[in-house]
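hey m, so remember when u said the tokens were messed up on ur end? i reran from scratch. heres the input so u can diff it against urs
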Amino acid sequence: MASRAEQKARTRNALIRSWLRLIGDGANFASVSLREVAKTAGVVPTSFYRHFGDMDELGLAVVDQLGSDLRRLGRLSQDPETDVTESVQQGVTAFAEYVTENADLVRFLNQARTGGNSPLRKAIDNELEFFSARIASALGDVRPELDTAARDVVAELIMAVLLDSTPAMLEADEGQLVEVRAGLESKIHIVLLGAGQLAEKAQPTKTSKRPAAKTTAKKSAAKKTTAKRTSKRPRKATGGQA
């Protein structure tokens, strides 16, 4: 027989899965009632309060679960020797698999990012910031020429591209999902390519200032020398003198 702690954990997980299932079936998470969640989980409403104080607390528990998942997905590549193309493919594949395997949870994320109450949105923002930081850390391997500030910006762009792709992933069939993944890889490559070009463009700008200054000084000195030589030449006599 399962222990009391195991039974409590199962009931808690059943309540979370039931809420997510209702969202996956098309309900808005903010309109789902406690009674609906309890009924779907197969428990009486009073059992709900043994695990969560209210529906907001249930939502925060789901965000915690989401955060744990995002921490595992936060790196494009664990191997610094992996090239950029392979790193992007690995990251996109892992993300697409997670979205399809956790569709109800991702639907909740898409709803709550903008439609949740303040504590819920703040909790989601914190998890997404951590996710972005993990991506920035991985960029140190695939784009080492970027400084810390640039990596943070690029990571935010990549995260935005990933999140924006989730509605298409959730609606796609197997064939369409291949196309969505290919498009997502292309978008991330464009972001990385632009970041690399900006880093390369900034590098020679710093080293080109000194030679330009020397060239200007040489031209100025040459002008002064020419002016001195011209002033020393004797003036020709003009006509009309006695």
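this time it looks ok to me. The longest helix spans residues 174-207. if urs says something different then somethings off w ur setup not the seq
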